[in-house]
Amino acid sequence: MSDGEPLVRWAWIGDHIGELADYTGVHLRLGLLPVLFGLIISVPLGILCHRWRWLYAPVLTVANILYSIPSLALFMIFVKYTGLTERTVMIPLTLYTLSVLVPNVVDGLASVPEPVRQAATALGFGPVRRVVQVELPIAVPVVIAGVRVAAVSSISLVAVGQLIGQGGLGYYITRGLQLDFPTPIVTAIVLIMLLALTTDALLVLAQRLLTPWSRSKVTAT
Predict the structure, then answer these.
(1) pLDDT tens digits, residue range 48-97?
(2) Got the DSSP string for 105-143?
(3) Cβ of 21: how many Cβ atoms within 10 Å?
């Protein structure tokens, strides 16, 4: 980048709108599917950990160990088995979400008042029905708080996957560095931030829709 050159060339952005949209879609898929997969794994795992507390410590230890492995190192490990594909990015990102989602599921279930469980049992709810229809809905705010953290983190980490050719908007970061051209770098960073903020806002909205009783409390107050 030479002195006096603008940080952002708007004409370049205008010429690449379609391509930017395509890479944004890829980035969103690579970032959010791991969160969905992580939630599918974490909910039953969290229920088991809440039911059998001895299981929680080893599960959380394994999840934290996986989270401590640098993303690029984990990508390289999976390259051997899944090649330079999207799965090589999504599998590690899914594993990363477990260290956030499993504790939030456990904490969410632990936040359910014991009288509520007893009342559900007295009404004839079996263990599975009570968890699905009573405990998990009450745990939603705590669970979604974890999903928000996992989603923002996952969307940010996707860009690292460009080092193996699967990084969504990370393509523009590496391309801009190679060409010493800041416009694609700045554009990619801004788009990634917007994706993270929009996803977080939509999750807050989802929480409000799934917990109408919380809105009633606020209105009553």
Answers:
(1) 999 899 999 999 999 999 999 888 888 888 888 888 888 999 999 999 99
(2) HHHHHHTS-HHHHHHHHHTT--HHHHIIIIIHHHHHHHH
(3) 11
